[in-house]
## 1
Amino acid sequence: MSYLLDKKTQRKKFLNIFLICIFFIILFFFRLAIFNGFSYVIHKVFRPVLALGAIVGDKFKSLDSFLVSKNSLYLQNEDLKNKLAENNTRISNYNSLLAENTSLKEILNRKNPARPPLSGAGGEKNNLTLATILSKPNQSLYDVLVIDIGAKDGVKIGDLVFALGDVPIGRVSFIYNDSAKVTLFSNPGEKMQVVLSSRNIFMEIIGRGGGNFEMIMPTDFTPQKGDEVVLPGINVYIVGVVESIISDPRDSFVKVLLVSPVNIQEQKFVQVQAR
């Protein structure tokens, strides 16, 4: 009986060894097919996960590209805004220079315009000489201009000076060889005879500085705001415009405040008229 059991056990061991050998033989000869099959199963099982990962990865790449593109567009937009602002500034400067150039051409193309002289000049035509303003109030004392023409250009003391637009603003008060000083009519304390155009009466105005004047007149001749005072003569040369009126019911006179029709601070050139 013991012998039969031992024999059965041996047979079982032999069978197990045989099956193991068969398994390794099959594994050796068919390892590629087995691994391929295993890979196929793994691929089938994890394919949805891999596909989802690929989609998510693509989305993140797209988001990153979007953010980079948006930042690039913002920088390009800022650059275009800066260039547009620079171009607008250039255009503005160009237009300003073009307007100034046109104005100068108009002046330089005038040929002895018939600007009637002041009283006593005989009614003959007078030459106009264009001058550049070298300094003006705030750069020079009181209401005084310094211009770039002088004795060598035929300028004389007392010559009338006009702002562009035929507005008399002062007279030459001192000359050098190649420059001259012009005292403005609005110089503090400066007195001059004018005509109140609305009433055709002669009045005296006094400079207050900064292009301002004042005059004292009877209440019976009180002007209106906007009335003009002009130089005596045939042609109308506006010196000042009534800005406001100061009155007192107890006083028989009123103080009239006037302002020059041009802002001397905006002027770059003047014209000098020979006497």
Note: The first strand starts at residue 128 and ends at 135.
## 2
Amino acid sequence: MRFLNIACGNTLIDNELWTNIDFTSTNKSVKRMNVLSKLPFNNDSFDVIYTSHFVEHIPKEDLSGFYKECFRLLKPGGMIRIVMPDFEFLIKEYFFHIEKRDIDKLEFVSLLIFDQCVRNKRGGSLQKYLYDLSLSDDDSMKEYVFELIGDDSGFMSQGSLEKNFYKRSFRKIIHNPSFILDALTFFRNYAVSFLFSKGFRKQNISYASLGEKHMWLYDNFLMSEILKKENYRNISKEKFNTTSWKENIFTNLDEKNSIPRKGTHQIFIEAYK
């Protein structure tokens, strides 16, 4: 058996069965490559392909090409498991809180839907919201936010935020020296942007990193129709702790302490070649 984890980030399984790939690597178990290009693997190489919170970052016009490449890599009878934000769930949650006149939860769900689509600075409004909430005494709201987004809530003190930032940055430099070049390129572009007026920059220039912006949002019906067009079959909607595969090989990816790792706002879709 061979399994492929595409755009794995830091969510991976480190053993001989799994191949973990991403645009950048801060872990010796992650191979760095352009995951939106033709991948350096033979046809019919993998039994399972797993990708979590990646397809929403792919430009909509490039999604078909991504699924074609996954189809090429899957063995006959192989399966792809896609984890992503569930647009239908978020919309239902939004209208539920309108009916309840719960402005706090309504504002948070609005951030989940829109912030990563429109943000023009790293972290966007959501990062500030989560940090401010971490300093508050609103335990009820903290519980709700954690329920929806799980580990991504990242409640911590300012000191911890700074410590983790420097730790992550140092790790990137050690394991991926090209990170320095990427950072220099970002600051060069940032400086050049100041040749434009403040109003123009605010409306047209984004300083958010590519991997944090949502290019589109999907639900079960829409994604299933897209997969059908790419010749996938036996498409099913699963839960964080269920799978149509022979055995659940995703527990350490999708689950933490018997709850979904990234909260209830996700959807889990599986499809076969």
Note: The mean pLDDT is 84.
## 3
Amino acid sequence: MGFYSKFRWKWLLAVGACSLSLFTFFSLPATAEDGGALYNTGYDINQGNRYFERQCSRCHGFDAKGNDETGAPDLTGRLRRASTEVGIFNIIREGVPGTAMLPVDADLPDATVWQLVSYIGSLRYDPSTVELDGNADAGVALFRGKGDCGSCHMVHGQGGRLGPDLSRVGENATPEELLTSMTDPHDDVDPRWWTLRITGRDGEARTGFRMGEDSFSVRIMDNDANLWSYPKNEVQSLDRIEQSTMPSYAQTMSESELDDLVAFLFSLRREETR
């Protein structure tokens, strides 16, 4: 074997060893400790978003705000079952026993799961970095007084049941969303808060909030907090009013008062556990 042949053979071995090393390095699955750091670029977030829309939106919604009827949680605020990227990764990979949250396919690459984790993380932000014009203490007074919000909304166990519980609304809504909910309450009303007018087999019409609905029945809660369930094969008529019953405060409150209410509502979140 000539010098050239020997050199070429050694060169091929060296290139092969180097290629194998690089392949091993880049193909190693990300560990729970380093995955979040490896897959946090804009490209990864976009890929995670694409996977979310294909596989996760059917329960959590395209806006990731969750679904009360299916029990799918809102992913845009504080997550109850996981507080770290590793925790979110494990829930996606393993699912949550006893719930509708099933594990992803076993052959789904870890990289894709981490991209999904990065996308979910991009939906949230640090509320301590948000600067507000209003005063939360003044907002409390407006909430209880002029706004009469407590007659419909509950906060920390006190208030009405005719509207969403606001005890942790600051975790799931931005200040802009809170303002819109007060000035234009009919914008993008969650189906949970549609009003239904139902006439049952007894011929009596009742109106209430849509508490739940499936292929066989529909349930409403009237203004006195009474629950009514109707088998669909016994419903004579059903009208859906896809608007909110909440009044608009655009004309009844000043800009500064609305700022105060936003500041109060945005402050409502679960206390950090130490």
Note: Confidence is low (pLDDT under 50) at residues 3-7, 9-31.
